[in-house]
Amino acid sequence: MAQLLKKSVKLALVQLASTADKAHNLSHARTKVLEATSAGAKIVVLPECFNSPYGTKYFPQYAETLLPSPPTEKQSPTFHALSKLAKEANAYIVGGSIPELEEKTDKLYNTSLTFAPSGELLATHRKVHLFDIDIPGKIKFRESDVLSPGNKLTLIDLPEYGTIAVAICYDIRFPELATIAARKGAFLLLYPGAFNLTTGALHWELQARARAMDNQVYVGLCSPARDMQAEYNAWGHSMAVGPNAEVLQELDEKEGVVVQELQAGRIEEVRKGIPVYEQRRFDVYPDVSEGKIKFEG
Ligand SMILES: O=C(O)CCC(=O)C(=O)O
User: How far apart are CA 42 and CA 34, in angstroms?
Assistant: First the structure.
């Protein structure tokens, strides 16, 4: 059987310290992405809401318009900055996420853009599961007060390497997405995300390792750096996890960059050792990757 990851590749997770100044955030992201690609990274991931503070009140203020595609520079400076940067860095860039305004409907989305080394837009993922939680005395957050959900899974073909899947933060809590992506052949699941001090401590690593373990694939989580002056305190701890659910590298809460080599053949080695891939009992329960599934990529 062909290897899911066709050739070994270095993945970078860029844990950025962002500010309220979008232009600064974009130029700072450029510096850190170029640092990662100088270290050999060919797939570079930015955090959720990497060019604005994170919070429902900021989404309308920082939103950019992406449709029709390509947008003008004025509609989306981030689109153009990332496209140019992918070309300059000669790498795939999974551009974390930004708030998106769809002008036609006046709806806001939490949206991730992925660019090829040519600068071409490869895929757009709108966060499918909105972050609505209420843990008394700890944290209440309702993205659905201002955002609308996306309605597609995002699988992206990187011709030299294979297929990756991109989803955003809270999406990681829905294992069906990951399982479908893995069963469709993804070697890597990427989640730009901004967990917090409550759920980060509880579930960040657990979710990353669980998605890797269930599916025997690589997983990358990319968070903003923690800012205790901000209203929302991100957990940080961006991490790369291997197909045997082992944490390969993890940052602390400060700004930093993870560069991790993903090895061709490793997924198959893990699946040979623990062959759940061949042991599934679709005669007993349905295969979630079959049937009507909406994709974007
Ligand atoms: O799932 C969580 O605990 C955090 C999710 C989150 O922060 C987000 O979706 O932005």
Answer: 11
Asked whether residue 297 is domain-assigned, the answer is: no
Q: What is the mean pLDDT of residues 171-190?
A: 97
Q: Domain range spanning residue 209?
A: 9-274
- The answer to whether 64 touches 39, Cβ cutoff 8 Å, is no
Q: Does a structural domain hold residue 157? A: yes
Show the tokens assigned to 154: 């995002």
- ipTM higher than 0.90? yes
Burial class (CB in 10 A: 0-12, 13-18, 19+), 78: buried
Calpha distance 201→199 (Å, rounded) = 5
Domain count, the chain: 1
Ligand 1 — pocket residues by CB below 6 A?
48, 131, 169-170, 173, 194-196, 199, 203
**pTM of the prediction?**
0.97
Residue 294 pLDDT: 84
Catalytically active residues are 48, 127, 169
Look up residue 160 and give its two tokens.
């030299």
Q: Give dist(CA 8, CA 193) in Å, integer.
A: 25
